[in-house]
Amino acid sequence: MSLRKRNDLPRPFLKWAGGKAQLLPQFAALYPDPLRVTRYLEPFVGSGAVFLHVKRVLQPDTVFLADSNEELINVYSAVQQQVDDVIGRLRVHQRFHSKDYYYQIRRRNPRRLSNPGRAARFIYLNKTCFNGLYRVNSRGQFNVPIGDYKKPTILDEANLRAVSASLRGVRLQTAHFREALNYARHGDFIYFDPPYDPLSATSNFTGYTQSPFGDAEQEELSRVFHALSDRGCFVMLSNNATSLIFKIYARFATQTHRVSAKRSINSKGDRRGPIQEIVVLNYDPPPVGKTAPFESALAKRRKTTSRAPALSQGN
Predict the structure, then answer these.
(1) What DSSP character marks residue 28?
(2) Distances (CA, A) of 66 to 17, 43, 135, 251
(3) Measured between alpha carbons, how far is 66 from 64 in angstroms, rounded to an integer?
(4) pLDDT over 70 for what percent of the chain?
(5) What is the pLDDT of residue 47?
(6) C-beta of residue 274 within 8 angstroms of C-beta of residue 261
(7) DSSP 206-220
(8) Higher confidence at residue 301 or residue 199?
(9) 3-state class (DSSP) for residue 71
(10) Counting Cβ atoms within 10 Å, is residue 130 exposed (0-12), middle (13-18) or buried (19+)?
(11) For 49-70, what is the mean pLDDT?
């Protein structure tokens, strides 16, 4: 039986380059033993696909989501705490959507809006821009052109409310990935989904924020991965299968898995298709068919463990 039915809620409410929704069936076999996971940390939250999946199948007691993209974290915070206000503003965007309206909203300074207003602007632009791409210029201004959609789904109220419910009790923070070293502790499950190392010079896209994400950042992330592994965390990371990534994670070569993903961000349709990505682990996932079903394992864990304390700096 599939872990997720096609129409189950909640689903990711944002389009995101490199979003992991399509990979969740492959990821399910790579998660740690659910009996051993009580805290989940995701320092590059993106569309939240993996968070929503882990929340469902592993049911961690404590969740920490972070990203260096301040606008993205504001969206999650507003959906978590003020979902009615976000929905109300999205209704307005849905009513007035047009090419002129899109560029009018794009020109608005999000810092002059309320948190729900900023979040609704972000969601509206995400749902109507080209390919759902998030890109900013050197001044941090969103600069993606409008997409060619006849009837974009600007508001999915039922799903937003379901995501809001999943975010209850989740700690959110705008933070650099290295800050995971300040709060991660032995036994935590941590998933990294950074901007990918490009397969070629023409595929180099890392413009999610004003800060670049090149070789130096990939190497720093590798050092963080290694440090968390040495701390006794369960660490999982996705990236392209490039020579740099294989080199900097060579210590975990025997725990590196290949997954197949379909890319759709290329502007040329004939270049969109299956591509091999890798998932680096520092642990051996439970053998397929040799572990108890998730439901049984989780029921056992609830009987034998107490709730983990809230995250705090230095834990």
Answers:
(1) G
(2) 17, 5, 18, 26
(3) 7
(4) 82
(5) 94
(6) yes
(7) -TTSSS--SHHHHHH
(8) 199
(9) helix
(10) middle
(11) 97
Specify the length of the chain in residues: 315
3-state class of 65 per DSSP?
strand
**Measured between alpha carbons, how far is 190 from 183 in angstroms, rounded to an integer?**
11
∠33-35-39 over CA atoms, to 5°? 90
Residues facing 37 on adjacent strands:
none
Q: Which residues, in sequence order, are bridge partners of residue 260?
A: 276
CA-to-CA separations, 219 to 213, 216, 283, in angstroms, rounded: 10, 5, 20
Please state, rounded to an integer, the average pLDDT across all residues of the chain.
Answer: 87
Q: State how far the Cα of 160 lies from the Cα of 194, in Å rounded to an integer.
A: 25
- pLDDT at 97 (0 to 100): 97
Place of tokens 């993996």: 50
CB distance 31 to 189 below 8 Å = yes
Handedness of CA 221, 240, 166, 2 (dihedral sign): negative
Q: Does the pLDDT of residue 7 top 70, yes or no? A: no
State the alpha helices, DSSP H only, in the chain. Answer: 24-27, 49-57, 70-81, 83-96, 99-107, 115-128, 157-166, 180-183, 215-231, 243-248, 294-304
CA gyration radius, the chain: 19
Identify the CA nearest to 125 among candidates 269, 264, 9, 16: 16
Q: 295: part of which helix (H) or strand (E)?
A: helix 294-304
CA distance 236 to 41: 11
User: The whole model's pTM is what?
Assistant: 0.86
Phi, psi of 265 (to 5 degrees): -85, -15
Between 262 and 279, whose confidence is greater?
279
The amino acid at 95: R
Q: Say which residue the tokens 């969206």 belong to.
A: 75
Spatial CA neighbour of 125 closest among 88, 71, 50: 71
